[in-house]
Amino acid sequence: MTGMGAVPPGATARSGLNRIVVTTARRLAVALAMSIVVGLVMLNTWVSSPSSLFFRTFLLALSATAAFALFEVWPRTLPRWLQRWALQVIAVGVFMPVTTVLVYALSTPAGAGPFWENPARLDGWTHLTFTGLFLAPWTAFVAIVRQKDAFARDQELTFALERSELERQALDARLHLLQAQVAPHFLFNTLANVQALVDAGSPHAAGVLRDLTAYLRAAVPLLHEPAATIDRELQLVRPYLGLMQMRMPDRLRYAIDVDPSALDVRCPPTTLLTLVENAVRHGVDPSEDGGRIDIGITRRGDRCLVRVADTGAGLDPSAGGLGTGLATLRERLRLIFGDAADLRLGPNTPRGAVVEIDMPARS
Description:
The chain is α+β, with helices and mostly antiparallel strands. Helices cover 63% and strands 12% of the residues.
C-alpha cells in the first residue's frame, strides 16, 4: 500500500509565496477599481484637477488595503474580547481620516496656511474622508465574510480529501488482508490434492511434485500483486488444471475458450484460479463420475464476463451460500469495483454448478 508522500519544504514555501502574491494582487486590483469608481462619482463636485482626485482616492484605497493586511497578522495574539475581523474593520476606518489628513498636509504649498483654513480644500477633505469612512469598513467587512466562506470551503474540501484518503487506505488494508488470506487457502488446497495423489501411490507423484514446485515458484509472487490480468490468470489456471488432471486422469476434463480482446483486462489476483479451484474441489472431486470444467471469458464493450461451469456434484443446499474462496473473491471484487462488479453462483444444466463474474473491462 502506497502512503501519502511528505511534501518537500521547498514546495510548501513556494506554495505559500504564490498564495501571498495572488492574494496581494487581487486586493490591489480591488483597491484600484474602488478608487476609480469613487473618483468618477466625486468628479462633478471636485474643484481641483481630476488627476489629483484619482491620485488621492487611490492613496485612500491603498491605505485601507494596507491596514486590512497589517491587522490580519498583527498582533499575533489578541484579547479574548476582541475578534480579529473587528480589529481589521476598525483599523480600516481609522486609517481613512489619518490618511486624508496626511495627504492634505503634505500637499499644502510652502507658506500656505493649514488646509482646514481653506474652505475649498476643507470641503474636498471632508468629502474624501466621509466617503472613505462609509465605504472602506463595509468593503473590509464584505472581504472578511468572503474570506471566511472561502476558508470554510477549503476546510471542507481538505476534510473531504483526508476522509477519501483514509477510506482508500482502509480499503487497501482490507484488500491486502483478503489477498493474504487467499495465498494460504490456495496453497493448502493444492498441497492437499497432491498429497492425495502421493497417498494413492501414483507413479506420477514425483513428476507432479516437480511440476508443483516449478508452478508455485511462478504462482506465489502473483498472489501478492495488487492487480492481475486475464492473461496472467490463465498462466496460473492452465498448470493448475494440468496438475489436477494428473491426479484425476479419467475423471477431469476441461476446455478453455477466451476472447483475445479480454486478455489485458485487469482483475484481482487469483480471480480465475479461485473459480476453477472451487469447481474442482466442490464439483468434480466429490462426484463419482468426475466432470468437465468449461472456462469462457468474453469481452463486450466496457464489460468482461468470466464464466466457469462444471458438470460435477452440483450445489449443496446445506452449504448456505458461497464457500470461503468465493465469498472472499466477492469481497475483493466489491472493494476494487464497488457495485460495478457482480459474482453469481447457480446450478448448471443438466447438472453441476456455474459461477459468473460480470465486471468492468479495464486494461
